[in-house]
Amino acid sequence: MRRSALVPLLLATLLLPALPAVAQVSPPAKAAAASFKEMDANRDGRVSLDEVMACAKKRSSAVTPFRISDVDTDGDGRLTQEELRKAGIKGLEDQGTIDARELDAVTPDGYVTSQDLDEYFRRKHRQAFAKADADKDGTLRQSEFALFRF
Question: Under a CB-based contact definition with an 8 Å cutoff, are residues 97 and 79 in contact?
Fold first, then answer.
């Protein structure tokens, strides 16, 4: 085989495995952009803490009250998405696993109401906002918002 025919074959062999990795990066960026647009209520291209809190309030008001012990079926102190789904709790799908001890801090009786979730989200969102606000200007640009984990 001639050398010139080997070069394209070698390049294809090296580059093709990288294509799936590029495809995997795109969806999370689109999802983050949608959340950014959802929270940027005044459409100024930045998300303020007030906008974050307003969005959190909407989410917490949609959640049905529940008892932590009824949801944490394995008793490990963590509410997984599977446990929340099995218990029929909606509105927390994007929260990942929730540390029940952090919820206990706002609801000592173990019964979580929308007011308890408001307080829980206020605490979590303030911490996450402060961490993501790299330039400390009190707002998150879309690039900073990518670091916003709550």
Answer: yes
